[in-house]
Amino acid sequence: MPATRPALAPGGLPLLGHLPALLSRPLAFLDTLPAHGDPVRIRVGPREMYVVSGPETVRRVLTDRTGYDRTGPLYAKIRAFLGNGLASCPHADHPRLRRIVQPAFRPALLPHYAEAMTEGTTALLAQWREGRVVDVTREAFRLTTAVAVRTLFSAGLRPRAAEELRAALDVLLRGIYLRVVLPAADLLPTPGRRRYRRALADWHAGVAAIIADYRARGIDRGDLLSLLLAARDEDGRPLAERELADQVATLVLAGAETTSAALAWSLRLVAEHPEAERKLHAEVDAVLAGRPARWEDLPHLPYTARVIDEALRLYPPAWAVSRTTTRPTELAGARLPAGALVVCCLYLLQRRPELFPRPGAFDPDRFADGGPPRGGYLPFGFGATKCPGDRFGLAEAVLALATVAGRWRLRPAAPGPVRPVPRIVLSPGPQPMLPQSRLGGPVG
């Protein structure tokens, strides 16, 4: 059969295309796309995108490194924030950067990082009070940002500097999705544009100051930044100053935003499903008996891990992964031109009914036997560009969830469902919840 042009999704508006739906109800809009093909075309203003969500098409796009690359206007926007980091660089730069960054996540270092995870969770929960509303989404982000900064910069970062980085990161993550789907956002003299640009300048200045301080002191603190400073490529070359800053930006983002989204979704889903909550509480009570979770507890918390897995399936942080075609190509019988933006929608992939029965249901036990179907569960990406810090993020999410569940029962403080907020990472919006103590005293 000759290749044909993919079908255009219905509902586009003159001039705007599908942009209003992507801004106001992106997930509901995406849910309609598989019925119209794989790939399927959508329009964002004058631009066209091709959305794929089947296991074979997603695998093809993410593994064909000659036909699809991380280039084009979308990645130019992302690199304005992240620089040419491991998560945003073109394929030509990726092998060298991965060889440099990978040793920072070797298994022998994870127990050391887990100490910061446990201490950070304990410090956060010490501030909670019975009946005092907390925004679980914001609290999860505070926790994972603190852990990312602690493991990356060790004790060498002052609390004020750490808070300034966290605040800038929050603004940038809120702004980058808008700039991806609405490039004109940078052309309008709005307060939001000024906040975004100020946060971007603060971010780059803060990271540069930290790196300069490390270089001046010349001390190996045993943290991620020390490892990156000491790293050499196959030719014996260290990372250049800008490359180092780009890797720092990528690692903070990966360590903070993706894990916080997984944790925040897990806490909400458990609160909405009494049987899952009962199983989770039974496990953490038997293993932890009220104390915080530590690295050595992870093998004994299988149900807690399955809760995280299922939250990552329903709401994958990297919910839409894009590539640009480097030449005219054919994908699943569809003809794509050179320079086409192809979006692998992992949110849709992980909700396909032929892969996951009752795909919209929260069921951690679907991960109990045999694991997920091959090619159907990719919360950390796939192939050569899969996130090297996946074990770091999973360990942190499991330790934090177990510690929270051992100390607190959470209940929504407002009626109605949580509304997801698509940023670079798929995060729940604000979710005020009431902590109800399950113990007589503070966690410690």
UniProtKB/TrEMBL annotation:
Protein family: Belongs to the cytochrome P450 family.
Key word rRNA-binding present: no
Pfam families for the chain: p450
InterPro entries: Cyt_P450, Cyt_P450_CS, Cyt_P450_E_grp-IV, Cyt_P450_sf, Cytochrome_P450_Monoox
Record lineage: Bacteria, Bacillati, Actinomycetota, Actinomycetes, Kitasatosporales
Keywords: Heme, Iron, Metal-binding, Monooxygenase, Oxidoreductase
CDD domains membership: CYP170A1-like (cd11049)
Annotated source species: Kitasatospora saccharophila
Keyword Mitochondrion carried by entry: no
Name used for this protein in its record: Cytochrome P450
